[in-house]
Amino acid sequence: MVTAVCTGTARPFNGAETSAIMKRPREGAVQVLPQGLAPDEQADRRVHGGPEMALHLYPLDHHDWWRGVIGDHPALDEPGGFGSNLAVTGLTEDMVHIGDRFRLGSALVEISQPRQPCWKIEHRFGHKGMVVRIVQTGRCGWYFRVIEPGEVAAGDSLERVATGAAEWSVARVFATLFGAKPEPAALRDLAELATLAPKLRAKASARLS
């Protein structure tokens, strides 16, 4: 079940930088469109948003783990604290795969890629080293592309209706692409995985060379 549906607006974040990482819960039904929720903003469209990163899910299950690492930060009480559009429990990176399809309210969505963490998470929480922790533990979250537009509201189901690349969990993809010494055979597989976002297929090819 979806605990909350969260959206944000770009606002001052770090000097001249803006960010929409601070997502807030919405009431009622929210449109799910190919570019994401309507309305929802991304400050830098070069690296956020678009059809391959239409919806972000960062598991609520990780929030308690982070309390043990950084303490009881107020943002950990927010369902969209990590910039997540969907607040969901009981679903983590090792349980889902690239290409898995889910019925989200009346929409149909598909997992496209893990989330690559950036400095904005550390700035949001005021703690250095969080990106390294994410890389080490694989607590990265993931993105969906939208296959069929629709609507979603808090309390709706997020129901898996098809399994994608069963050998490629989000956790394994993240470890392969962002870990220290990926196996060449694994990188070749990812470079050819049609349901993986094109930029990450290209990244797999680049790491091979």
UniProtKB/TrEMBL annotation:
Record Gene3D superfamilies: PK beta-barrel domain-like
PROSITE patterns according to UniProt: MOSC (PS51340)
Record-linked InterPro entries: Benzoxazolinone_Detox_Enz, MoCF_Sase_C, Pyrv_Knase-like_insert_dom_sf, Tri_helical_YiiM-like
Location of the MOSC domain: 24-161
Gene Ontology MF, one: pyridoxal phosphate binding
Recorded coiled-coil stretches: none
Entry protein name: MOSC domain-containing protein
Species per Swiss-Prot/TrEMBL record: Erythrobacter dokdonensis DSW-74
